[in-house]
Design goal:
- The chain is mostly helical.
- The protein has one domain.
- Helices cover 60% and strands 0% of the residues.
- It is built from two helices and no strands.
- The longest helix is centred in the first third of the chain and has 15 residues.
- The protein is flat, with a radius of gyration of 12 Å.
- This is EF-hand domain-containing protein.
C-alpha cells in the first residue's frame, strides 16, 4: 500500500535518477530507461 507521501518520494527519486534534461517531466526515452532497469531487477522476494 502506498500513500501520497510515498508517491511524492517515488516521483522525486525517478526525476533525480533519469531527469537528465531537468524539465520536471519524464520523456519517452527516460521512461524506457526506467522500465528496462525495473525489468532487469529480481522481485523483492528473490533479493
Amino acid at each position: 500500500d502506498y500513500d501520497a507521501q510515498d508517491l511524492i518520494e517515488f516521483e522525486e527519486t525517478i526525476l533525480q535518477g533519469v531527469g537528465y534534461d531537468k524539465d520536471g517531466k519524464v520523456s519517452r526515452k527516460e521512461l524506457t530507461m526506467i522500465l528496462l532497469a525495473l525489468a532487469k531487477m529480481p522481485p523483492d522476494d528473490e533479493q
